[in-house]
Amino acid sequence: MKTPKEILLQRHEAVEPKLDAVRQNALSALARPSLAQSWRGFIFSIRWHLAGLSAVWMVVLLLSLDSTPGSTLVIARDKIPSARVLLASLLKNRRELMELTGTPPAGEPVALPPRRSENQSSIEVV
Amino acid sequence: MLVVREHQQLPVREARAGDAAAWNALFKRYQLPLYTYVFELIHHEQASLDIVQESFINAARHIGALRENDKFGSWLFGIAHQKCAQHWRRQRPENVPIDEQNNFPDAEPGPVEILVREEQEAAFMKILDHLSPPHRAVLLLHFVEDFSIEEIAAITGARAGTVKSRLHYAKDALRKLLTKESK
Question: Where would I find the H helices in A12-82?
Fold first, then answer.
């Protein structure tokens, strides 16, 4: 006579070598750190490098923020000439252009056609 | 090598401290009963070996969740039981989980001590296989590790009353069929 436990365990005794392998696998999996643990360890080991790099980037960011929008606008505004200078240079350009094309300068009056009344006086009715 | 006999106290405290020899002893102590339980539930050798290995690794990784050291066995079987339920769902998703089938009215388990004669062994296994998964789980946990009603309830996630009625039903069915077989 056997107890159910004896029957059940005896039925699977042949699998013991495979179970030993399973046990060894489980033990070696425990010895190996998990992926999360590996990552944690890696990050922890380079924590000072990461802190240094972060500090450098913060400095770079602060410097670039300080020199970008405000100062550029000031420089640009300084470079814009006044309206008077612009007008003078425009007139100069126009004069030079007219000299080149042979057009009389803007200062001299342009020859206008004679008045209509003057023309009429020369026409005589026959 | 550290070897644990059934009557000895399990080296759970040492295992909690990360002692590899203690884990080896615990795994060695439970590997065959755990495999027997899993195999008799899912009837697939490779899947059963995988579940045993995953249960060992999970137990070692989450040992902090175990409150009482002397409940290590039922806690480990609980992990394996959940993995069996997952396997069941993957294999036959249309089936209800093994914890939720067939609720029988509460009944006191009778003092039935089952002893099986050599010529009845095959019939015993056949009868066991014919039981529904919830009844088989309860009976296996009772036979293989002699867990208490409360421990079986904790492993299977069922109420103690349900476990009691399932155990009574399963043992009664087994006894009747064995008596019939012997005639």
Answer: 16-31, 35-45, 47-67, 69-79
Tell me which residues of chain A have a C-beta less than 8 Å from any C-beta of chain B.
Answer: 1-5, 7-9, 11-13, 15-16, 18-20, 22-23, 25-27, 29-31, 34
Q: Which residues of chain A have pLDDT under 70?
A: 33-34, 67-78, 103-126
pLDDT (0 to 100) of residue A38: 75
Q: Give the span between the Cα atoms of B167 and A53, in whole angstroms.
A: 65
Helices B160-182 and B149-156, axial angle in degrees (round to 10): 110
The mean pLDDT of B50-57, rounded to a whole number, is 96
For residue range A10-35, list pLDDT tens digits in order. 999 999 999 999 999 999 988 876 67
Residue in chain A closest to B45 (alpha carbons) equals A15
Q: What is the pLDDT of residue B10?
A: 87
Q: What 3-state DSSP class applies to A2?
A: strand
Other beta carbons less than 10 A from residue B96's beta carbon:
13
Mutate one of A5, A10, A24 to test the B interface: name it (highest B CB count within 10 A).
A5
Q: How high is the pLDDT of residue B102?
A: 43
**CA–CA separation, B52 and B38 (whole Å):** 8
Q: Select from A1, A8, A20 the Cβ nearest to the Cβ of B40.
A: A8
**Cα A51 to Cα A28, A41, A44, A60, B71, distances in angstroms:** 35, 16, 11, 14, 46
Q: Identify which of B69, B35, B36 has the alpha carbon closest to the alpha carbon of residue B55.
A: B35
By CB atoms closer than 10 A (0-12, 13-18, 19+), residue B18 is: exposed
Element (H, E) at A32: none
Answer yes or no: do B53 and A22 touch at CB < 8 A. Answer: yes
CA B120 – CA B108 distance, rounded (Å): 26
